[in-house]
Write a structure and sequence with these properties.
single chain, 199 residues, mainly alpha, Nitrile Hydratase, Chain A, 2 domains, two-stranded parallel ribbon, 11 helices, 4 strands, 45% helix, 11% strand
Length: 199
């Protein structure tokens, strides 16, 4: 594959990625099927869907919810989710009066087994610095406006402790089953920069 263009012209990331993958494949350095498998693993299997299953179970099973809040790592492992970047996960609950939001001020520590790969905004220095100093303003800029009387707590993830937010269950979902609740739960709600909305 040949890519041409002016020296000062920056090609789209997707084009550059495809060219790099083809070059590495032609030289026998990678197997495209292995790469695709890794991407699928983190986007689908080891991704936000896992966290959504944890949240949905906590919403429908009070005993599981209690275990999750007492020992997040163990309760999450009950559902088969564990591994690197998830050896110690603490779960905190959002309520009508308290709201938790997660950041990693040093780098981008993130609970991969339940949330997959961290989004680009999570790694952005502006988010990491500003959400600690002005969380309400940052959340508002991201589309989440909280009432003034809601207490916001910023949780700083580290290499030792990763945080997961148990979002509030939205009103009007009482009739939904655990399986029906899973698609409602977003990655952003488990980081605390969004709320779960009833569909």
């Amino acid at each position: 594959m040949t890519i041409t263009g002016k020296p000062d012209e920056i090609l789209p990331t997707s084009v550059r990625t495809e060219a790099l993958e083809q070059l590495l494949t032609e030289r026998g350095l990678i197997d495209p099927e292995v790469v695709d498998g890794i991407i699928t693993e983190y986007e689908t299997n080891v991704g936000p869907l896992n966290g959504a299953k944890v949240v949905a179970k906590a919403w429908t099973d009070p005993e599981y919810r209690q275990r999750l809040l007492q020992d997040g790592t163990a309760a999450i492992k009950e559902l088969g989710f564990s591994g690197p970047m998830g050896w110690h996960i603490v779960v905190v609950e959002n309520t009508p009066t308290t709201h938790n939001v997660v950041v990693c001020t040093l780098c981008s520590c993130y609970p991969w087994p339940v949330l997959g790969l961290p989004p680009s905004w999570y790694k952005d220095p502006a988010y990491r610095a500003r959400v600690v100093k002005e969380p309400r303003a940052v959340l508002s800029e991201m589309g989440l406006d909280l009432e003034d009387d809601v207490q916001i707590t910023v949780r700083d993830s580290t290499s030792e402790v990763r945080w997961l937010v148990l979002p509030e269950r939205p009103a009007g979902t009482e009739h939904l089953t655990e399986e029906e609740l899973v698609p409602l739960v977003s990655r952003d709600s488990m980081v605390g920069v969004a709320k779960v909305e009833a569909s």
